[in-house]
Amino acid sequence: MNRGEARGFGGRKGSRGQMDYRPKGESPVTVDRSLDESSGSRGRGSRGRGRSTTSWCPRDSSGRGGHEHSPGQVYVQESNAVFVEKGVQHNRRGVSTVDRSLVDSSGSMGRGPRERGGSRTSWSPRDSFGRGGHEHSPVQVYVQESNAVFVEKGVQQHRKLQEDKLGSTKQPDEGAAAFKFSGDNKDLLQSSPSSSSKSISLSGGLFVSKESEDKDVKNGARIHDLVNQMEDVSLSCQDSVSSTSEKVELSSAEDQNSTAHKSGGEGNSSSERNTGPFDISLKKTGIVLKPALFNLNKEKRKSTKGHTGIVIRPGMVLLKNYLSINDQVMIVNKCRQLGLGEGGFYQPGYRDEAILRLKMMCLGKNWDPETSRYGEVRPVDGSRPPKIPVEFNQFIEKAIKESQSLTASKSNETSGEVTMPFMSPDICIVNFYTSTGRLGLHRDKDESEKSIRKGLPVVSFSVGDSAEFLYGDQLDEAMAETLVLESGDVLLFGGKSRNIFHGVRSIRKDTAPKVLLQETSLRPGRLNLTFRQY
Ligand SMILES: O=C(O)CCC(=O)C(=O)O
Ligand SMILES: [Fe+2]
């Protein structure tokens, strides 16, 4: 990894500050999997279990099957063909949409994504690079419904997990509820209205959209920055659980001392570095109220829709909604626990003037931003990085296998080239971004030469608030694509995409699943884990 290369927007590479906000076109191809919400039988506890045996049924974006290399392919399991047909009808009305929940249980039409993507009727087909037309779209969508049998399994697993939880006062039944409820049902592919030029957001459906024009790029970016900074000043319980009136207090020495998020600097001043453990959770006091029923219902709907696999480009796969709420709770709690101990979260400094606007912790090996090297200890304090929790490994293994089957089914290569090689992680970099957090475009290229030559993938988990993730082939934000990564998403980039430039432009405030916040008291922001093999 060489994240110092260009980390921090507005850092030393002049081009990074010059964002292009020009519109690139929009193309909604939504896949809404909320077929059978009322039965309650589509819980996501099965994700990762037995997925490699699933037979995918290719569909193109207009719902036709059997097109081997059809652009914008949407893959759904055979049993859901009825919805594709419904989607086709919808399509024929002139919107490239495969929507299987035209009227959901709340009685509303369709889903939220269009809120950000502009008018539905103005959509036109685009691939992930913003090009028009149906030809050669590099985006494929795979939809898999979960199996009800795993719901119970998930509940049991959740209950067990509760025993390990830090600071939990929950009853087992709440665990069951938590398992069923997940995040909001937002965009699958959507624009990022405030900033990006080419934006893809994915959640429960797929559409590729363009940005609305922003004429004053620099001012816009500055305003965006200021807004983020102001948002962080008002850190409160509403930031994490909007519907509650619970009292929240900062819980670590650093929380109380640091002005990182309040200053909007994400803790980059020397006085904010290494001042003590950073707690990714907020300590709660007083009565804890549950999130509003409305939010829970929305999250429930999302959790019943299974996950979606999307081949973004060769070697790059996004598994939407892949980690269940249970998984996410476990990940947050583990990270919190490790983050408070030796080698835990700290504020990394600058690298070549590039700002690291995040808290970081390394697992397995330490990555030093000052030298861009891996080592056994963290030079800044001599601490040893904690081991990667074994619980995490199962997710990596399954995610890679699933990505392999997705890329294999898409690929027409007979050369035997491995589009997504397997890897066993011995490094995990855990980042926590508060609302003003960001990470400049960079490549992960400090792993061993062999690892990079083989294209061993980086596997990235997103938990908490959504992020605008940039990626592209050049160190130039204006040329970069945007993916909105939501809580529970897993992104893999290996093979031909192993060396992509990538970064995080911004964190979308108040977008984390409410149940996750309730279960973990995760502070406002985003937890990201990237696994690699040295
Ligand atoms: O937060 C993310 O999504 C990306 C993190 C990343 O690129 C890194 O840690 O190297
Ligand atoms: Fe990276």
UniProtKB/TrEMBL annotation:
Instruction: Give UniProt keywords alphabetically.
Output: Dioxygenase, Iron, Metal-binding, Oxidoreductase
Question: Is the Oxidoreductase keyword given for this protein?
Answer: yes
Q: Bias category Basic and acidic residues: which stretches?
A: 61-70
- Classification via PROSITE patterns: FE2OG_OXY
**InterPro entries attached here?**
Alkb, AlkB-like, AlkB-like_sf, Oxoglu/Fe-dep_dioxygenase_dom
- One Pfam entry for this protein is 2OG-FeII_Oxy_2
Q: What are the start and end residues of every segment in region (Disordered)?
A: 1-72, 87-135, 244-277
Required co-factor(s) are:
Fe(2+)
**Which part of the chain is the Fe2OG dioxygenase domain?**
424-534
Kindly give the PANTHER family that the UniProt entry links to this protein: ALKYLATED DNA REPAIR PROTEIN ALKB-RELATED (PTHR16557), NUCLEIC ACID DIOXYGENASE ALKBH1 (PTHR16557:SF2)
Q: Which family does it belong to?
A: Belongs to the alkB family.
Protein name per UniProt: Uncharacterized protein LOC104765221
Q: Which gene encodes it?
A: LOC104765221
